Amino acid sequence: MANTITILPGDGIGPEITAQAELILSRVDELYGLDLRLQRARLGGEAIDADGTPLPQATVEACQDSDAVLLGAVGGPKWDNIDKAKRPERGLLGIRKELKLFANLRPAQLFPELQHACLLRPDIVGQGLDIMVVRELTGGIYFGKPKGEEIRNGERVAYNTMIYTESEVRRIARVAFETAMKRGKRLCSVDKANVLEVSQLWRDVVTETAKEYPEVELSHMYVDNAAMQLVRDPSQFDVVVTSNLFGDILSDEAAVITGSIGMLPSASLGRHNPGLYEPIHGSAPDIAGEDKANPLAAILSVAMLLRYSLERADAAKTVERAVQAVLREGYRTLDIMEEGATQVGCAEMGRLALERLGKE
Ligand code: NAD
What we know:
Layout: E1 3-10, H1 14-32, E2 36-40, H2 45-51, H3 57-64, E3 68-73, H4 88-98, E4 103-109, H5 122-125, E5 130-136, E6 148-152, E7 155-159, H6 166-182, E8 186-191, H7 197-210, E9 217-222, H8 223-232, E10 239-242, H9 244-258, E11 265-269, E12 275-279, H10 296-308, H11 313-328, E13 331-332, E14 342-343, H12 346-356
Parallel strand pairs: 1-2, 1-3, 3-12, 5-10, 8-9, 8-10, 13-14
Antiparallel strand pairs: 4-5, 4-11, 6-7, 11-12
Bound molecules: nicotinamide-adenine-dinucleotide.
The site of nicotinamide-adenine-dinucleotide (NAD) has 22 residues, from helix 4.
């Protein structure tokens, strides 16, 4: 049966980088006989201009009927001054909601070839950096009720509620354990169980869920310590699972350490719905249309799509090896350029990776 992939190029550099990712997908399809059916739909600013809304119904339906969705990026100055409820970012939040995506997977990986870009001392990253942060995406303090602002005793007070049900914790824990099974089989659950009741429940449920995955080594860490350990000794982590708020902060921290925003992919997963794959960077309007964007985060998003939605780790590795090959040979886009390397544009970087696909 055909695997349908919906591509949402979006705005800014989105179309440039997804064009390269699409070429890679088609070639992987030829190499592995995946029977892919690629289709495109509009999201974000592009959809506002064409359809008057950042998330047209046709896009929702195309994505829902797919096996996976690949997104470029949305947004740009052109749409910055329109009504907040109709901005491009609404399209992104909307499609995540429509697809019921509750798990966000963000790898922070440092390719040995890009060590110069890393923000940590060489003696620290010398041990390697390859972490997957699994963040709960739809619960916790960002959505908990009650929330609000009011006057009490003559002064303004504001409050939010950090709340998780055990089923919410169990489903994200399962995603994290399953992710760990596909990697180094080590999972660190991050919480603040020494202070927060909600974290104690989190810890209890993750510990219970561990019984379903006897091969995975589970540890727990308080979030303040995790923030320190990420910069002190990142090589100790394989998969990290944590709540929405803590994951928001830690996934950015882990990513920035690598020093190359144009290199990092991400995945958002639901239970039975198609996963959404996208680079972590935005639409980079400052370089859009100039053939300067780094397409490798989009290409590595394809690798995640192959691994997590199509369950084709073999094809995913082929894509990752092609990316590593172009880096090893010294090709760099402007954002990761260094002395002695060969600078190439977006299309050329894509072409070089394509050429190496399946030959590494
Ligand atoms: P950004 O990630 O777009 O850009 C930050 C800096 O990194 C810029 O200098 C940009 O040129 C550079 N950069 C980003 N990706 C690159 C790549 N692939 N290759 C080379 N350089 C790259 O963040 P921003 O400037 O804060 O936001 C720009 C727009 O993107 C805004 O409209 C914002 O709302 C939107 N945005 C969208 C998403 C998304 O679609 N998921 C995420 C973040 C921001």
